[in-house]
Write a structure and sequence with these properties.
By secondary structure, this protein is mostly helical. The chain is built from 21 helices and 5 strands.
């Protein structure tokens, strides 16, 4: 069968012409080499336990809460722990990082439920017409997210509240909450463990982040398969996971976050929403979804380097890139994209609530592209919003959002792929783009 959850992890290969997958790990910092070396004679499995009952008991003791609210998280939690022990080959510091992550996720589960137990009125919070961005990697999701976030009618959850949702954030202390500094230390730790990561992705506790990071606490999230080399968990995620659960829980998190810090409309983003649009609309029936589009041949962005770096933070195990080769073909990518067309044509998702954004337009005419998106989505585009967008663009260095180059010829291999992607490109009006 198809494995959509895995498609999001590895969009395509590094060398598009040679179809060659490879990744070379960067050198480790000297301090980390020494730390891990000290653990080689120790029983790190018992020193840093990843036992389910012990982790649960520790999270309950630390928070003082015992009610998780529901049990949907328990099966994926168990599958993840089994994969971590049998497959991930965590090194000493990686095991510490992983234990910290898991305890934070369990405490988030307990905290969200505690908030609803203490204040049942949170459940009455209305998540009004959230605007959700989804699309292939390198198709403009981040660009669009940054530009639309300039509009004050939108709010996006920041990384620190995703990590530490309890107690409910307050408007009066939203920018001074002590959880910000704790989150900042933990997420910048990634740069200290693997310095090359700092060149790949900006990490800041105050920045909005992708929905999958918040959903990690449900243990049904593609983010977890980015962090650890756990094929058993990935297989479970792709074939057995109930994706309604993490979306329903995420809605509860949004209700909690806006309870004492109101947002008019949520602006949300994750490329992986592309895989679960029927579930997204079931949980958020009035959502508006912005689908970003780019020539799939150019959008075949390799995330092998990013994923390999995540794995390398926590393990010395070589990245098994060959395990992903079957998922990287143009045929699989086209099937994933055409499924969106089928969902719309069959009425499984409301086509009138789905809108398109072309990468080419965002790069070449960003302000005009934003105006058009607002018009199609029925959003009020004020002069102040345009002023903010223009001011934001003026501060960005040239090339920040990439270049948009058209080639003058196509190889036989490109022509073959072009035929595979024809239905998708014609349906959404996606222009050819060849480097």
């Amino acid at each position: 069968g198809r494995h959509p959850a895995l498609w999001s992890l590895m969009e395509v290969c590094v060398d598009d012409e040679a179809n060659d997958l490879h990744w070379t790990p960067p050198p480790r910092p000297e301090w980390l080499q020494r730390f891990n070396a000290e653990g080689r004679g120790m029983d790190i499995g018992n020193l840093v336990p990843l036992d389910a009952d012990e982790l649960i008991a520790t999270a309950q003791r630390v928070t003082g809460f015992t009610d998780f609210g529901s049990d949907e998280w328990r099966e994926p939690f168990g599958v993840l722990l089994k994969s971590l022990e049998e497959e991930a080959e965590l090194h000493f510091f990686g095991r510490l990082m992983t234990r910290s992550d898991i305890l934070i996720w369990l405490q988030a589960l307990l905290g969200v439920q505690a908030a609803f137990n203490e204040h049942p009125e949170i459940a009455r919070e209305v998540i009004d017409r959230p605007l959700v961005i989804a699309g292939l990697s390198r198709s403009g999701t981040s660009i669009l997210f940054e530009l639309l976030s300039q509009d004050p009618q939108f709010g996006s959850p920041r990384h620190w509240e995703m990590m530490f949702p309890y107690p409910p954030p307050e408007r009066s202390t939203y920018d001074t909450d002590p959880r910000i500094e704790r989150c900042q230390h933990l997420i910048t730790q990634w740069n200290r463990v693997t310095p090359t990561y700092a060149t790949m992705h900006e990490m800041d506790a105050r920045l909005p982040n992708e929905c999958v990071i918040a959903q990690a606490c449900t243990f049904v999230s593609e983010f977890l398969a980015y962090l650890f080399q756990v094929p058993g968990y990935m297989q479970w995620l792709a074939t057995r996971a109930d994706w309604t659960y993490p979306y329903v829980f995420y809605k509860r998190m949004l209700q909690l976050w806006q309870w004492r810090n109101p947002r008019r409309h949520w602006l949300l983003k994750a490329p992986s929403h592309l895989n679960y649009l029927p579930v997204l609309f079931k949980v958020f029936p009035d959502a508006r979804v912005l689908l970003t589009h780019r020539d799939p041949i150019k959008a075949q962005a390799s995330v092998v380097s990013l994923t390999g770096t995540f794995y390398w933070m926590r393990s010395d195990k070589p990245m098994a890139v060959s395990a992903f080769e079957g998922l990287l073909s143009p045929e699989h990518m086209a099937a994933r994209l055409e499924r969106i067309i089928d969902w719309q044509d069959r009425g499984e998702i409301p086509g009138e609530q789905c809108f398109s954004s072309l990468y080419a337009d965002l790069i070449e005419r960003p302000v005009e592209a934003v105006r058009r998106i607002y018009g199609e989505a029925g959003l009020a585009c004020t002069p102040e919003t345009i002023r903010r967008v223009e001011a934001y663009l003026a501060k960005k260095p040239q090339g920040k959002f990439g270049r948009h180059d058209y080639g003058v010829g196509e190889s036989a291999e490109i022509r073959r792929k072009r035929a595979i992607f024809r239905r998708y490109q014609e349906y959404f009006g996606v222009p050819n783009e060849v480097a």
